[in-house]
Amino acid sequence: MNKIDNFKSIVDRYKVVFFDAFGVLKNYKGLLPGIERTFAYLEQQKKEYYIVTNDASRSPAQLAESYQIKGLYTITSDHIISSGMLTKDYLDLKVNDGIVAYLGTPDSAHYIDSTGLHTLPVSAIDAGNIDKVNALVFLDDEGFNWFEDLNKTVNILRKRAIPVIVANTDHAYPVTKHDVSIAIGGIANMVEKIVGKEFIRFGKPDSQMFMFAYDLLRDQGPISKKDIVMVGDTLQTDILGGNKFGLDTVLVLSGNTRPDDAGNRINATGIVPTYICDSAVIEHGELGF
Amino acid sequence: MNKIDNFKSIVDRYKVVFFDAFGVLKNYKGLLPGIERTFAYLEQQKKEYYIVTNDASRSPAQLAESYQIKGLYTITSDHIISSGMLTKDYLDLKVNDGIVAYLGTPDSAHYIDSTGLHTLPVSAIDAGNIDKVNALVFLDDEGFNWFEDLNKTVNILRKRAIPVIVANTDHAYPVTKHDVSIAIGGIANMVEKIVGKEFIRFGKPDSQMFMFAYDLLRDQGPISKKDIVMVGDTLQTDILGGNKFGLDTVLVLSGNTRPDDAGNRINATGIVPTYICDSAVIEHGELGF
Amino acid sequence: MNKIDNFKSIVDRYKVVFFDAFGVLKNYKGLLPGIERTFAYLEQQKKEYYIVTNDASRSPAQLAESYQIKGLYTITSDHIISSGMLTKDYLDLKVNDGIVAYLGTPDSAHYIDSTGLHTLPVSAIDAGNIDKVNALVFLDDEGFNWFEDLNKTVNILRKRAIPVIVANTDHAYPVTKHDVSIAIGGIANMVEKIVGKEFIRFGKPDSQMFMFAYDLLRDQGPISKKDIVMVGDTLQTDILGGNKFGLDTVLVLSGNTRPDDAGNRINATGIVPTYICDSAVIEHGELGF
Amino acid sequence: MNKIDNFKSIVDRYKVVFFDAFGVLKNYKGLLPGIERTFAYLEQQKKEYYIVTNDASRSPAQLAESYQIKGLYTITSDHIISSGMLTKDYLDLKVNDGIVAYLGTPDSAHYIDSTGLHTLPVSAIDAGNIDKVNALVFLDDEGFNWFEDLNKTVNILRKRAIPVIVANTDHAYPVTKHDVSIAIGGIANMVEKIVGKEFIRFGKPDSQMFMFAYDLLRDQGPISKKDIVMVGDTLQTDILGGNKFGLDTVLVLSGNTRPDDAGNRINATGIVPTYICDSAVIEHGELGF
């Protein structure tokens, strides 16, 4: 059996904490009860933190608002790193003109739209504008007709040799205690296999997510990877990605990895967190204020 | 460059011909012009033949009717082996009671329904009957709401440890000269990866398709695999499957494999047909009647 | 928790029993103590049986001898179906002349040699005879120099578009209580990925193994798939393959699948055996003779 | 047909050039004739450059020496970024004590040895020290007995839940005009599949290689990704990785990608370089000095 560590004493050892969002700060029912104490403690101790999330469905401002509505007032948009931000960066650097076709909601597209490119839903691509499509982005599993628009996506990609960006690498996400939804990452894998091309993926465990946060930290002053700890509930994304980037890692048992299964999963995958905690919640009695 | 063989002279060397359907007998425009002469010749020469097809969207009777409507009167349902027939056999042998949930059209389900099991579309499964679902079948890419019913399928399979049958292994199929549609086999791969289970697949290149036809032949009298030639347009299904089953094989260039690319594809895949022909059409002048 | 069934009472319900070898009849220490009683019972009850094994390292005669040496005198070579036999059948039907290059021991090659083809170890292929190589077979993980001969195999396959047969699909096999060896099936996967070609695999769960045994049974008289039960220790090969072929299946807990993990594995894979037994051993008191 | 660009005029547009090594600067015969002019031009124009290579077989000092021996005196070790350096960084950050077991030559291990950890070849691991093994590294395809040490590696990883680092992601590398050798990346994939664990890979197309070079550049002064161009001969590693990191990219036709196949490969993969050049060689007449 693995030893369970105390989350507060781990936080005390680092200058910066990276958090995954789903399964760590919130779940299908809303915020984890007591998680506000963790952020109060970080604030009081003047620790820096980032939320590093495979979520391209909304802008950082909208993501931050979703925490503030629920009472986590300290989480502002500059504390959020999403795979959608990396997608926007890619388009800024690599796609200079023409149309960016997308699968997702208008909200998700509004965000990447700000690059000055012309973003259009896949449903709006036709014989008259297909030659101007210079990139295609998988943003969200909602906001389009799966049957019509996935078939159209396959045919666009058979005709155009263009970069395809998958802005969320997850295959599924929980929607209730027992049910999940297919995520845009799972859909993108199907399309990639059918068209036989290589897509570009942004999202943990890929290092580019961590690099983005690390760059923001370096802009604020000298920092070492040894000063940062990554907290997540999923071995294959949060912990593998954090480890690979050279960070210490905390597996919390409040999400994807069940307490009675954590040891088995670690042995089976060989993905070993530095610490294991019940959750990222700091108890009231521990705070001292 | 590969040598192009004459189809009629190949037919002359065998007692039985197995044909793939799409790309060999018909394409997105209908029957291949002149293919009726091939069947007239088989009839006149008293050669046996079977159409061996990865198609579970309709019953053999309906598939046969689709040829007869177009003028190929000799193709009767007893000449058709479909992956749907193997699915029906599986359910007859292995699933004794309860509900078989399916993704597909009512037409595709009507056929497997004859086993006496209760077949229900995935959309009709709910908390009240999920415990009676004893198998789930991927039949056709049409006839259901992709967004709702694929998400429901994932959640049914997370709750029930039941056999899942994929009755068509193709990933995509052509609908016009330039466009394809995603096939149910491609969709099933996505769901299989998300739920992490092992599905049962019927369809070429799997040997069970060929075994089914071979068994029917043996019921008619002594036969050797050396007496049979398999004709197809796709290296990875028709030719690989035929080769593996021990049959001689003909690659025709009227479908998936383009004449200018056939040699490259054979070298790249290492899947080598016994013969290569332009098509399975026998020319008028060759018939002699 | 899954119900544990009594093996003898299962045998009583069928006319024919198919057995996997490793983990069912024997393990790394030798024969399972008491397994001779099971074969005595089959003999006494005049039940037919076949051993269906992913083993191409020796001929059926040699495999049978290995049981007889240990005291299982009733197991004769005509009761053994190996993936090596399917390989031999393939070569008989599909490769007419030239050299068959192989990776394995001379024993494994001696067996396929009987087809009249010239079999040569990969190490004996050079610029002077490479053009005559018309097939390449992965037979056994022993009998060759991995570094030299695997690199040579890759380069032969880059130059020759020929069928490649993998005569054992297993990735690893147990050699002691705690240790495994890499099997030729795992090595073949590596080579296949590097050369980018499609290999032909014989071995469970592929149906052709079961078809071979079923054909032998039909030669002896009328039989239905409902009369046969497949006994194995591995969900992904024995049980999946038996199920797919339409047979009832018994998972025994004397090999790959641990008693405390069987339920989890069945739920996780969705591969459901008809029965679960501790082992295929019939107890002394049950025999009645 | 794709337009062929002039390499010198591309270099003129950027401040920094990243080069792949094999297929760009050298091939199986040695340095590309004339490549010294390219480095003379970079020197004269005061352009910065890095060689970004999936090579963990030697230290940067040894890699640099291999260029200098052949006359490329300007290439010093501080211009070389190898996947081996990322491996060393990982061990420095994440593995604090114990043994690092490795597959490779003593030369490759000597380099990672400098971290202060105890490095031992896999062949030296036994029951007495296996519990101290805290990481395992795939460094090079030479320097060990494939049969004995790969089997031993599998069994070490079945017993120890430890990070496994693959320091070269290539599957094969050219050794003569027509022949390749299996690379350690291909071997690592086989072992990963057999043990069912998740390995950590360093090497293009992974972003961490490019990040490492980019960080070195930023230490020298302000730089933007727009100022850098990546030059490589392989779409799936150099071009995909460069594109994903946000760099402009040059595909050269002097290595893995043949001139008559480049257009097909780009369309088939959807990996689109910014430019295509015959090679990275600048012609004598272009230099002007």
Explain how this protein is built.
The structure is a homotetramer of 289-residue chains. In chain A, 37% of the residues lie in helices and 19% in strands. Chain A contains 11 helices and 15 strands. The first copy, chain A, is α/β, with parallel strands linked by helices and 289 residues long. In chain A, the strands form 4 sheets. A 6-stranded parallel beta sheet of chain A has the order 5-4-1-13-14-15. In chain A, strands 7-6-8-9-12 form a 5-stranded parallel beta sheet. Chain A has a two-stranded antiparallel sheet with strand order 2-3. At the A-D interface, α4, α8, α9 and α10 of A face α4, α8, α9 and α10 of D.
Largest sheet of chain A: 6 strands, parallel
| Oligomer designation | homotetramer
Helix content of chain A: 25-40%
- Chains forming the largest contact: A-D, 35 and 35 residues
Which regions of chain A are unreliable across 5 or more consecutive residues at pLDDT < 50?
none
Relative strand content of chain A: 15-25%
Mean pLDDT of chain A: 94
Strand count of chain A = 15
Distance between the termini of chain A: 34 Å
The SS-based structural class of chain A is: alpha/beta
In angstroms, what is the radius of gyration of chain A?
A: 20 Å
- H/E order of the elements of chain A? HEEEHEHEHEHEEHEEEHEHEHEHEH
Overall spatial form of chain A? globular
Count of DSSP helices of chain A?
Answer: 11
Main-sheet strand order of chain A equals 5-4-1-13-14-15
